[in-house]
Amino acid sequence: MRRVLFLLFLASPIAAGPEIFDPLAVWKNPNAPSKRPLLETVFSSGSTELARYHYRNNQIVRIDYLKLDGKKEIPAGHSLLSYEDGLLSREQLFDETGKLCEEVRYLYRNGRAEKMLVRDVRGNAHIEWHYFYDKNGNLISGRRLLEGKTTESFKIVRDQNNTIQKIFNARGELTAEVTSVYENGRLVHRRKNALTGTKYADYKYDSEGFISEIVYHDTERGQKVFAKKHTFSYSKDHSENKTALAR
Fold it and tell me: What residue ranges do the domains of the chain occupy?
């Protein structure tokens, strides 16, 4: 398994920070919509990779990762998702041989994620994300701990149409800012300014307001360059997914 393949689809919690946006989060929540993405296709640097989604009660329960070699689909691993009382409680990431690589557990308070506990099986590391909210239930800050020591933290500032996430290292020094722009309540653009350069993401939606495309750009020598594109294919009907797994 190539770790980069998984990172194309979902940022691994081992490396992920608050700047990571999960476009499929709505299908991991209670009362998920019946219209569901079945296939995600990623185009980058001359390669094509796929993720196939399987559901139970409109919530994602399994993701199969594949690499496209011509017309041949080569398995590259999978994820299993578990729920308790409708809330995502555990995610497990496996390589192409079926070996567990990472496991994430979610702890909630008043229906909000309070902690994310990560076990990196390969690196034998234990990582935690702790989240904090304002009185209205909006996420305002968090911190990342490795073996009990803070390694990263963030704060979120909001205005009417934008949010700015300020990311700090273990010494409290600002290392990055992520600006998110919203239109009609939907994320349409995101820019991350960091010491290593600037990254961009642009989001498009279909006529029903569901995510249809994400295009990412990096910067090289001060120039904006294409990095990758994600496209999403949805079920044609809104009935229960006949390929949903009972695993």
Answer: 3-234
How far apart CA 168 and CA 165 sit, in angstroms, is 10
Report the amino acid identity of residue 44: S
Provide the sign of the torsion angle of the four alpha carbons 123, 149, 144, 131, taken in this order: positive
φ, ψ for residue 26, nearest 5 deg: -65, -25
Residue 196, C-beta contacts closer than 8 angstroms, at least 6 positions apart? none
- Other beta carbons within 10 angstroms of residue 154's beta carbon come to 23
Profile the chain (247 residues) by mean pLDDT over runs of 10 residues. Answer: 36 48 90 94 92 96 94 94 96 95 94 91 87 93 93 92 93 95 93 92 95 94 92 73 36
So what's the architecture of 3-234 in CATH? Beta Barrel (2.40)
47 burial via Cβ count (<10 Å: 0-12, 13-18, 19+): middle
| Secondary structure tally for the chain: helices H, strands E | 1, 16
Rounded CA Rg of the chain: 18
Q: pTM of the prediction? A: 0.86
